[in-house]
Write a structure and sequence with these properties.
about 210 residues, mainly beta, 6-stranded antiparallel β-sheet, 3-stranded antiparallel β-sheet, 3 helices, 15 strands
Length: about 210
């Protein structure tokens, strides 16, 4: 059996990137259309920011084989759309029994988690905070601070991502908004639709 060679990457916290990454993708304002509750505020922000990047991911993918691991860095700029903080698209793993971890490098934010049945959890993330995302949880990152949120992450290489589970439900069940006192609070997402039992069952049957 031929073994893979060990590798090393360096987290550049100031630049919010993984040095030695094999992949990079970015999300600009226009890419996040439909995620926020305030469409008017979103259109205004799109005109203001143009094609500026809201968040980017750099990662190192040795392979997609079971038993391997993907590592990377997420960098998200601060900001809001109306009262709602900047966020990532969010996903559940296509092989939903795969976990993930996030390690706060700089900034302040949180992980918004939702079970397939619609239970909500939040985990605040700051420097040196390690967030464990268990199997079967939908999750998205939210920047609730005044500066960039930079996090290192790692997850099994064969996890895959399922973004449709959020879109089909009209978003996640809760939104993270400014509480008017420099912090954040959760509010109900008026567009949310409870997932049918068959869709929930497909999640729990998806593990390979």
């Amino acid at each position: 059996m031929k073994l893979r060679e060990p590798g090393v990457c360096r987290v550049d916290v100031a630049r919010g990137e993984l040095v030695g990454a094999t992949n990079r993708y970015v999300k600009r304002v226009a890419d996040l259309e439909g995620l926020y509750e305030d469409g008017v505020a979103f259109d205004a922000l799109k005109r203001e920011l143009g094609d500026q990047i809201v968040y980017e991911v750099t990662d190192y993918k040795p392979s997609a084989d079971a038993g391997d691991m993907i590592i990377g860095v997420t960098r998200m700029r601060p900001g809001k759309v109306g009262r709602e903080y900047f966020l990532t698209r969010g996903h559940i793993h296509a092989n939903a029994n795969r976990p993930e971890m996030y390690y706060g490098e700089s900034g302040r934010g949180l992980m918004l988690l939702e079970s397939p049945e619609g239970e909500i959890r939040t985990v605040e993330i700051g420097p040196r905070a390690l967030c464990y995302v268990p199997p079967y949880w939908i999750h998205r990152s939210v920047n609730t601070g005044p500066g960039e949120l930079v996090m290192t992450f790692a997850y099994p290489a064969d996890s895959g991502q399922d973004y449709a589970i959020i879109e089909e439900a009209g978003g996640m069940k809760s939104r993270v908004v400014d509480d008017g006192q420099g912090g954040w609070t959760l509010v109900d997402n008026a567009s949310y639709r409870t997932r049918p039992a068959a869709r929930v069952a497909r999640v729990f049957a998806s593990a390979s």
